[in-house]
UniProtKB/TrEMBL annotation:
Bias kind Polar residues: ranges: 1-10
Listed name of the protein: SET domain-containing protein
Ranges where the SET domain occurs: 115-267
Region described as Disordered: spans on this chain: 1-41
Origin species: Roridomyces roridus
Pfam families given in the database record: SET (PF00856)
Compositional bias annotation for Low complexity: 16-34
Length: 425
């Protein structure tokens, strides 16, 4: 069993303990576990990390307290063994999280039947990237993959310990997998394994125990293929993590042509180009040269304005009424809600931001026409909403198909009773 060395300085120590010290429900290799520190980090470290974590909406942890958090951690390293043994995952997890991993790990979502992507050099010298090997329709599955390495979002150890833990984690992978891992990009050359982890990590949510000072559900996962996706501020694909099958899927947000680069968004795409640039520089050490960021100044300012408008779309309850309020209120125009969603769709399509609630706007427009009992437009927009569903979601597609055939079975059919609009049924 690999044994980690003990750090004598700093606010954390970790020591190997018996591999049988905690039971695992997950099929796995022997584990090594590390107890947590006896002391808290310096106050300034706590204050900074607490502020960052509390302010990060993705982490959903507004009361995060680093001191309490790390005192309650007991990390363990363990490999996940898959039924078909075609993949390996080395994990560094809090034992409470490890015990909640799916057992047995099911196979991932079935991968596409034919080769959908290839990894090759990008013409813009962004290193390697993922490219479509065939035409992929909107909602199509590009790839599906188990993670190779998983670790907590916040690893409460001092830098020396961290480097040792990463090295040990890598040592748990086979030589060929470790070699592929080491060939991944590193945006902070010189920072070795930590740099590779941070450059390539995808945030995934794992189940965490419901206890005080629980581990954050957000974890960092590195993938050998998916982590090759480069960033775009108008991405044509998005990652989806499926917790039960322990796999990450990559789905097309709009049609992708054979040979086109497959891109995802590393950061929030609705902030201004200047903000995006600052974040990408700080986190990934590159200047974005995507089609949007390369626009001339006037067009870039218009893009910023469009994105700012989209960012607050759902927050403007005074400007955009709720569906129920619109259905009840005869003083509101028949198309006020529909027009607002159509405007958002136009902005999304212009900006290439299908990553933002594209399907939700289509659903809302179809719902609006359903409430107005406009059979023709209801069918047309429900068709578009159905087409925008990821291809694998067969249940949703079937239900929508039924509504298209029999509009009066749509749950909110005719809810806006005082409509003066066209009524075709
Ligand atoms: C997760 S890796 C992506 C794959 C990487 N290109 C490779 O060769 O493995 C992230 C790194 O790719 C590069 N990169 C990604 N998107 C980029 C973009 N839009 N413009 C320039 N470089 C980019 C940056 O060096 C970044 O640190």
């Amino acid at each position: 069993m690999p044994v980690a060395t003990t750090s004598s300085e700093g606010y954390f120590t970790y020591e190997p303990s018996s591999p049988t010290s905690s039971s695992s429900s997950c099929p796995s290799s022997p584990s090594s576990s590390y107890r947590r520190p006896k002391t808290s980090p310096p106050l300034d470290v706590c204050v900074q990390i607490n502020a960052d974590i509390r302010a990060n909406p993705t982490l959903n942890s507004p009361y995060f307290d680093l001191g309490g958090h790390i005192m309650n951690r007991e990390y363990c390293m363990q490999n996940i063994i898959y039924p078909d043994e075609t993949h390996e995952t080395a994990t560094l997890l809090d034992v409470g999280v490890r015990d909640l991993l799916p057992a047995p790990v099911p196979p991932p979502v079935p991968p596409p039947k034919s080769r959908t992507f290839e990894i090759k050099e990008t013409p813009q010298k962004h290193g390697l990237g993922m490219f479509a090997a065939q035409n992929i329709p909107a909602g199509g599955l590009v790839a599906v993959e188990h993670p190779t390495v998983i670790l907590p979002y916040v690893l409460g150890v001092e830098p020396d310990c961290e480097a040792e833990l990463y090295a040990e984690l890598l040592g748990r992978l086979s030589a060929s997998t470790a070699e592929r891992f080491l060939s991944l990009a590193n945006c902070k050359p010189g920072s070795s394994l930590k740099g590779i982890m941070n450059t390539n990590a995808v945030a995934i949510a794992l189940d965490v125990p419901d206890v005080p000072h629980a581990e954050l559900s957000t974890h960092r996962a590195v993938f050998l293929n998916m982590s090759r996706c480069n960033h775009s501020c108008s991405p044509n694909a998005a990652w989806h993590y499926d917790s039960p099958s322990f796999s990450l899927s990559l789905e097309a947000l709009r049609p992708i042509e054979a040979g086109e680069e497959i891109t995802v968004a590393y950061i929030t795409t609705t902030c201004s180009a200047a903000e995006r640039s600052a974040r990408l520089e700080a986190m990934y050490n590159f200047t974005c040269s995507c089609t949007i960021c390369s626009l001339p100044p006037l067009a870039l300012a218009q893009s910023d304005a469009a994105r700012a408008e989209l960012a607050v779309f759902w927050r403007h309850s005074n400007r955009i009424p709720s569906f129920e309020a619109w259905c009840r209120d005869p003083r509101m125009g028949d198309t006020v809600l529909i027009d607002a969603h159509k405007r958002a769709l136009d902005l999304i399509e212009h900006e290439g931001l299908q990553v933002l609630d594209y399907g939700k706007h289509l659903d809302a427009i179809a719902m609006g026409y359903g409430a107005l009992r406009n059979v023709y437009l209801f069918r047309a927009w429900m068709w578009r909403a159905r087409e925008a569903r990821p291809l694998g979601r067969l249940d949703a597609a079937r239900v929508m198909q039924k509504w298209i055939r029999e509009p009066e079975t749509f749950p909110v059919w005719g809810w806006r009773r005082f409509s003066r609009g066209p009524r075709s049924s």
